[in-house]
Fold this protein.
Amino acid sequence: MHPFDILGDPVRRRILELLAGGEQASGEVVEVIGQEFGISQPAVSQHLKVLREAGFATVRAEGQRRIYAVAADPLREVDAWLGQFRMFWESKLDALETEIARGKRQRRLEAQATVKAASRKPRQTRSA
């Protein structure tokens, strides 16, 4: 199965997101995926099997439990393939980062000016 066929399924992508946070027991994965997608334990197990057989996930036994983890190699292959397209968005992301920094700087300068103006204003006191 092609890596993008594997990653094209939202359930499998979500499982990989869970595993990216660290190893997970199959029962934990089943619980989260079952709640989020409303699918059964056998369906989640089938998705785990597809990920394992395609090399995207590894599994090890720990007593009665099966512990799953992300396998990085297929993701590196996907990343390498996507590399040829990065030029289409990297400059735009760099420009966005610059605009965000400008906006933050402008807000900070405006806030400082407001504080300065407020500190220069004489305080009015009430006369009795």
